[in-house]
Design a protein that fits this description.
Length: 423
């Protein structure tokens, strides 16, 4: 019963009205019919036309039809999984009320509900990614080694798809440069690569090949997969938001849309080069740059692990720092240490809360020092106030690496650069 109460709380008060109606339905429908209804609420993988996000231009004279279509598509993306959660929880609650136990297919209902809530979270995160493009400071464009950024993007995709059923091959010279902002370019590449890996996973021997070539005063980065190709009907709309042919768990169809906007913010372009039954190739086009001697890796972005047991605070930090770092979050000391043990080379910096129930920053630094002293020295701590003698001593002796809440984006960037330069 406690699990059901927790799930209801996670669903939020916005589900109350829908839950009430589904509760009535629960008494009228058989168990299998209820399950069938819940599953039927999922949207078709490729739904109606979605207009480009108005934020792309924030155009005040955009017509009402465009706004209406966007609002309708967004409502469908949120409402369908919301309805699944509501129907499943109502069904479980009714069964508990009548029989005092979960139904035989209760675990399936819970799994469906958790998957639906995860889908909502991914849609919201993608919208935040799109929205942050409108509020970030102007990009500081610099000469960026292409190979370094591509290597970083490949590492990030490997963390997103740890099974590695698809091989990613990078055939790019180390001395090739573009004019860009490294963190923004890597975010765009991650979205395109992730999309290619998903497509190639349909092949028995999935493969993604990344290339780059100079074309006059531009550099064309190619991302080719050996997937089934893109259907003509989808090609016309593949850069629109919420367009996807994959199952819900693969995303909401915002990746390519956000990637194209990121590229255009760098005075570049993302386009479909070719597609067919043997695969698809995307092009990312940017101004070419002459690299200084010895520049073979990007100075930024760095990969940042954010450790905070407060889910909402952690999400806030991830969104705040996403434009400057490749960010991954951990909900406590144990999960953070597990990520580091799996691959300490995947992180350049850590941002860790001092006060957490599982030992907090004190325990984290102690155990991290034994795993990777380099990363321990690159750990920035933050606190809203150290409680207890031990915590106070800890903060005092590391004051040069401690920031006060609420965190300031520029303060994090400045301290991160100082730590990395010292190394």
């Amino acid at each position: 019963m406690e699990l059901i109460r927790w799930l209801f709380a996670c669903a939020g008060s916005a589900l109350a009205v829908v839950a009430g109606r589904c509760f009535i339905l629960a008494g009228e429908m058989g168990e299998r019919r209820r399950r069938a209804r819940a599953r039927a609420l999922w949207p078709d993988p490729l739904h109606g036309a979605a207009a480009p996000l108005i934020a792309a231009g924030a155009n005040s004279d955009a017509d009402g039809d465009t706004l209406g279509r966007l609002a309708g598509d967004l409502a469908e993306e949120i409402n369908n999984p919301t309805a699944v959660i509501s129907a499943n929880l109502s069904y479980l609650a009714e069964h508990l009320r009548c029989y005092g136990v979960l139904p035989e297919d209760g675990p399936d209902s819970l799994a469906d509900s958790l998957a639906a809530s995860d889908r909502i979270a991914r849609v919201v995160q993608r919208l935040l990614d799109a929205g942050c493009l409108e509020h970030n400071d102007a990009h500081a464009l610099v000469a960026v080694p292409v190979r370094g950024v591509i290597d970083g993007a490949v590492d990030a995709v490997h963390r997103l798809v740890p099974e590695r059923r698809v091989a990613i091959v990078c055939d790019v010279a180390v001395n090739l440069g573009v004019i860009a902002e490294p963190a923004t370019l890597e975010r765009a590449l991650v979205a395109v690569l992730h999309n290619a890996v998903q497509a190639a996973s349909a092949s028995p021997a999935g493969r993604v090949v990344v290339t780059a070539a100079v074309c006059g005063e531009r550099v064309a980065i190619g991302v080719a997969d050996n997937g089934p190709g893109v259907a003509p009907a989808v090609q016309r709309r593949m850069f629109e938001p919420f367009v996807t042919t994959g199952p819900p768990e693969q995303g909401a169809g915002l990746g390519l849309h956000v990637a194209r906007r990121l590229m255009r913010s760098l005075h570049g372009e993302l386009s479909l080069a070719e597609t067919g039954s043997r695969g698809t190739r995307m092009h990312l086009d940017l101004p070419a740059a002459q690299l200084r001697a010895g520049a073979t890796a990007e100075p930024f972005p760095r990969r940042l692990l954010v450790v905070d047991d407060d889910r909402f605070g952690r999400r806030l930090l991830e969104n705040l720092l996403r434009a400057d770092f490749i960010v991954e979050g951990a909900d406590g000391v144990d999960s953070a240490l597990a990520l580091v043990r799996a691959g300490p080379e995947l992180f350049d910096l850590v941002l860790c809360d001092v006060m957490m129930p599982d030992g907090g920053g004190i325990r984290f630094e102690s155990e991290l020092s034994a795993i990777d002293p380099r990363l321990a020295a690159h750990t920035i701590f933050f606190t809203g106030g150290a409680v207890g003698d031990e915590a106070e001593r800890f903060v005092e002796t590391r004051h040069e690496r401690v920031l006060a809440k609420p965190l300031d984006r520029e303060a994090v960037k400045s301290l991160a650069r100082d730590l990395l330069e010292e190394a």
